[in-house]
Amino acid sequence: MSAYNFAYLDEQTKRMIRRALLKGIAIPGYQVPFASREMPMPYGWGTGGVQVTAACLTPEDRLKVIDQGADDTTNAVSIRKFFETTAGVETTERTRAATVIQTRHRIPEEPLGEDQILVYQVPIPEPLRFLEPRETETRRMHALEEYGLMHVKLYEDIARHGAIATSYAYPVKVEGRYVMDPSPIPKFDNPKLESAAIQLFGAGREQRIYAIPPHTRVVSLDFEDHPFVASKADHACDLCGADHSYLDEVIVDDAGGRMFVCSDTDFCATRQAEGHRGRLSPEAAE
Amino acid sequence: MTPLLSVRDIAKFYGPRVGCEGVGFDLYPGEVMGIVGESGSGKSTLLNVLAGHLPADRGEVLFDTRAEGLKDTLAMSESERRMLARTDWAFVHQNPRDGLRMGVSAGGNVGERLMAVGARHYGEIRGTALDWLDRVEIEAGRIDDRPRAFSGGMQQRLQIARNLVTGPRLVFMDEPTGGLDVSVQARLLDMLRGLVREMGLSVLIVTHDLAVVRLLADRLMVMKSGRVVEAGLTDQVLDDPQHPYTQLLVSSVLQV
């Protein structure tokens, strides 16, 4: 499609975004403001992630897009198609083969390597937003490293539920300095934030970009007597039998029947191809 | 003896109008100083300037810091001042809604300052919160209730607990009894007096209620139009007022 510049955005915009990305990488966890553009999709559909991806893509890249771990959901399909059309880059569903992965709400199960970039779609970049609504105040709190309030939220969780009930968008401290919202990934994925890949976070409506450089220390906040637990459903995948992957619970009938399947479709499919079987796999069910 | 707080020639202007001007005094450890005056006399402005909530236009506020002795808080970096504000200082607002987090449970409110200075043990934070709720006469069973579910007097007591939990040395109070009915006021004052004596707190208390300062304050400053018109021992000023305005103020107190 020659009517568009490569990857939709014009070169000046991409430069502007790259400058924000570089600043974000230089200050891990710091929210860099950037002049977010109108994208041809509604806010909440990943406009921030799309802009970051557009600024990172080169014609040689191989792109993978996932939504809640799945390659075949609306959001993932439409964004993948968007870049196929506007950038003409190769796309893939295989985690290992991708050079750029745009994700919504998950980190792939397979550990990422140094030659990969993971781009997150972020709805609300400010971890303190629901505790302190004033942006002027939260910025000052970040600047002065006043993060006591974040623990008040965790305290409230324990007081009300007996355990830290926050199960997604679990706050982390990056490189001992900035407290960061890792976007609404399940807290099961938090340990994977310490990765060899470059991790970039784009919030389009909120106009913020932040980043975690490779091999950066990322610590999930907790209490000494209530340590962080990367929890998941206490089952194995019913299709591939994996007991160490994050699972979706699927209701299969109206009689209480349910199954648990890996939310990472590529991970599950790869395992099935390797011959792993779960409780409800076609062969096993017969 | 070094004063805990030494205020020198403080001035704050709102454009051409005077907020407060030429205010200076020393406050010693364990001392309670009352600031009285009618509405608009600049007493809340003064308190807010001293507590660092408003920038001053002139003057010095020297505080006896634990590490470095007397230090001008107005010239401090913001991070230092805010650190002071959540450790050695406390600020009790007139309206508890300004000083409390209404969406957070009573225990969380009390624990916030502890967590802000690095407490990371849930059991200990909760234990301290329970202890403090007891000291301000709030039942232990209400620890997980939100302040919204509390009466005005309880909210005010909770605000006091939340402020005193880190063992501050200097407490700023802006009309702590305003808006409470008299019996609740009496109970609050009684409790405050006990805590002040027990913890050896220095207190700056702003009020228009002379009965409150009579009960709590060792010394008194009377403000009018942003200036201090009279200062001295509380009983001395109230029993033998010298300045015409103070005389008016004392004679205006309603008798039952």
Automatic annotation (TrEMBL), chain A:
Which enzyme class, named as a word? lyase
Look up the EC number in the record and give it.
4.7.1.1
Its keywords, alphabetically, are: 4Fe-4S, Iron, Iron-sulfur, Lyase, Metal-binding, S-adenosyl-L-methionine
Q: Which residues cross the membrane?
A: none
Could you give a GO molecular-function term held by this entry? lyase activity
Which residue spans adopt a coiled-coil conformation according to this UniProt entry? none
Reaction catalysed by this chain?
alpha-D-ribose 1-methylphosphonate 5-phosphate + AH2 + S-adenosyl-L-methionine = alpha-D-ribose 1,2-cyclic phosphate 5-phosphate + methane + 5'-deoxyadenosine + L-methionine + A + H(+)
Per the record, the similarity remark reads: Belongs to the PhnJ family.
Q: What does this protein do?
A: Catalyzes the breakage of the C-P bond in alpha-D-ribose 1-methylphosphonate 5-phosphate (PRPn) forming alpha-D-ribose.
Name recorded for this polypeptide? Alpha-D-ribose 1-methylphosphonate 5-phosphate C-P lyase
What is the gene name? phnJ
Automatic annotation (TrEMBL), chain B:
Ordered alphabetically, the record's keywords are:
ATP-binding, Lyase, Nucleotide-binding
Q: Which residues form the ABC transporter domain?
A: 5-250
One Pfam family in the UniProt entry:
ABC_tran
Q: Which InterPro entries match?
A: AAA+_ATPase, ABC_transporter-like_ATP-bd, ABC_transporter-like_CS, P-loop_NTPase, PhnK
Give one GO molecular function term.
lyase activity
Q: Cross-referenced NCBIfam families, in alphabetical order?
A: CP_lyasePhnK
Q: What is this protein called?
A: Phosphonate C-P lyase system protein PhnK
State the organism named in the record.
Sinisalibacter lacisalsi
